[in-house]
Amino acid sequence: MSQGKAATSMNTENKYNIAPATEEFFVRQLALWPMAAANFKALEGVEVKTFPGVGLLDMKVQFNPARRVSSAAKVDAASLKARKCFLCGENRPAEQIAEERGRYEILINPFPIFPRHLTIPDRKHTDQRIEGRVEDMCRLALELKGMTVFYNGPRCGASAPDHMHFQAGNTDFLPLPGLIDSLADAPEKGESARIWTVKGLPMGVAVIEGYEPKEIASIFEALYASLPVPAPGEEPMMNILCYTPAGGPAGLVRLVVIPRKKHRPSFYGTEGGECWLISPASVDMGGVFITPREEDFARIDAGTMRSILDEVCMTTAEVEDLIDKL
Ligand SMILES: [Zn+2]
Hints:
Elements lengths: L1 H9 L9 H13 L1 H10 L4 E7 L2 E7 L4 H4 L5 H6 L16 E3 L2 E5 L8 E5 L12 H10 L3 E6 L12 E6 L4 H9 L10 E4 L8 E5 L2 H14 L11 E6 L9 E7 L22 H4 L2 E4 L2 H6 L2 H11 L3 H9 L2
Parallel strand pairs: 2-12
Antiparallel strand pairs: 1-2, 3-4, 4-5, 5-7, 6-7, 6-10, 8-9, 9-11, 10-11
The structure holds zinc ion.
């Protein structure tokens, strides 16, 4: 945690081990935007349950009613057409400030899951597609130290599948990155990027790691090409997490790809006691399940999380087989 300690000593208010410039952006934005500040404040009091040992993962469950909008989002073409895109600059609240970062903008997510939560939309209104953007993702992770940059595919949790965006949250909130770091020796500086799978997780993941974003992107492209597509012309279904390991060698990036089989579990629904309002995305894959409804938070257990992950993700053996064939 040497990077985290350095950041903390520069700014005693920075509790989340993120870059001081990012923390400063949060402080500046929340001072200008009471609604967002109230939502971040409310997050400090949300209920969290922990389920140790879901495979190797210690899973958490967060009861977060403010996420209902996102978990129940209608993402069919007609619903998207009927609403104003909340990621386009002209439709944003007047209080929201943006920091330009190449073809992207950095914004604060006003409906947070993480104590530090960013949304990073493309400056143009263009479809959510990952192809050709993994290098960008790696560079953002290198710039936003201490944060995990993540991508939800258009059928895998993105609530604006018509406007390309990443999100980012403080890495120390998620169980998965620290677990992966504890299982893997860092490659030496100068070594080529490599891909491997983590055995013992409740879902199949491919880890691509290295020091050169271009090399990571090129391995990702080979994996992408080997994955099935849900419909002609669409991209393979996936969630992706990208971060620089805490205390790891400078410049090392880990990209965690979680291929998906399904958008939502078969028992997903917004009404009634039989269904569950759970729409898993990158954060859930990272080890924090989000339940916007109190009844789901009360009844969830390790077995339910396992069956959701079984239904929507590939198995470790399936991901291993894909990697062997690259
Ligand atoms: Zn838009």
